[in-house]
Design goal:
30% of the residues lie in helices and 27% in strands. It is α+β, with helices and mostly antiparallel strands. The longest helix has 18 residues, at 8-25.
């Protein structure tokens, strides 16, 4: 592989950063303070990221520089002695899940070649649809959800009543949820964490078949990096909350009322996605402590090779830092 591009050797270094963020968040699980949990995870992830052999720039981060002192959009990360990369980070995808002690909270990093990630930060929300490989060329976000469900069921060779669709449980999705059920499919309502929801919909023999609805724009970009490795389908379109946000998006070069395909969300297949479980979930197990050891489970998805690897780690507390 070209040494100027991120390669598989970087993946394990990135896992160290998500592991650190997940472990640091553990004391805040179920404590009701999502900001404290996120702050601890940010501090840990940032410290480890600066040891990684990349010349990275945060495209999807914790906010603009004047609003977030660490892992802000545009921040340089890595030791500067490796390939030039775009970086998307979410030290905790599911801060509310963590604060409430609920499942499916993750610590996430995604990486691609420099200049390949869409910077969607000026518009907070994105309407998305994600499926596994069976949905490629079959489903389309512009079509009614019932039509997409029937088309996907036919492509997968299963009855419509066996299709399960993940949706964030929000008031804005009341009609969408009703339409899914009216089509004969089942729903799996998520309280938070739509990155895990998208990946679970795209995995082979996953418990869900489709993830759809309006969630965070940053999460859409991060999910797209993972979908590249799974051969799945993802589309997104900006969902500005008001005219002012719509104009900010236009001024930033984003297209409104436009469907972004996978290669427009993240160009090319040289993507790396890593995630470590904070709390237990369908994708990975959460952090657990046994005596002087802390156990973590992570996944690494690499677009160039189309691989999903699981990494189980045992950290001796006296040496962990």
């Amino acid at each position: 592989m070209n040494p100027l591009h991120p390669d598989r050797n970087i993946a394990l270094e990135l896992v160290r950063a998500t592991e650190a963020a997940a472990i640091r968040a553990v004391p805040f699980i179920g404590r009701g303070d999502k900001l404290a949990a996120d702050g601890a995870a940010v501090d840990a992830m940032r410290a480890f990221l600066h040891t990684v052999g990349i010349d990275g720039q945060i495209v999807i981060g914790e906010g603009e520089k004047d609003e977030a002192p660490m892992l802000f959009n545009g921040e340089a990360v890595g030791n500067g002695r490796g390939p030039e990369c775009d970086i998307a980070v979410d030290p905790i995808d599911g801060t509310s899940l963590t604060a409430e002690g609920r499942q499916n909270a993750l610590s996430v990093i995604a990486v691609s070649d420099r200049g390949t990630m869409l910077d969607a930060s000026s518009v907070f929300y994105m309407d998305k649809i994600v499926t596994g490989p069976a949905g490629v060329g079959v489903v389309d976000i512009r079509k009614p959800v019932g039509e997409n469900i029937r088309a996907l069921a036919a492509a997968m060779g299963k009855p419509v009543d066996q299709i399960v669709v993940s949706v964030l449980n929000r008031p804005r999705h009341e009609q969408l949820i009703a339409d899914i059920r009216a089509a004969g499919a089942g729903t799996r309502l998520m309280s938070d964490g739509d990155v895990a929801g998208g990946i679970n919909a795209a995995r082979f023999n996953a418990p869900t078949d489709m993830c759809i609805g309006i969630g965070g724009s940053p999460e859409g970009i991060v999910t797209a990096c993972a979908i590249k490795a799974l051969g799945g389908h993802i589309q997104g379109r900006m969902w500005p909350r008001d005219d002012a946000e719509r104009q900010r998006g236009i001024d930033a070069g984003l297209k409104m009322d436009y469907v972004y395909e996978a290669d427009e969300l993240v160009k090319g297949n040289n993507t790396i996605f890593v995630a470590t479980g904070v709390t237990d979930g369908q994708l990975v197990s959460g952090v657990r402590r046994e005596g002087n050891w802390v156990h973590t489970e992570s996944i690494v998805l690499r677009g160039a090779s189309g691989t999903l690897r699981r990494i189980s780690s045992e950290h001796l507390l006296t040496k962990w830092g």
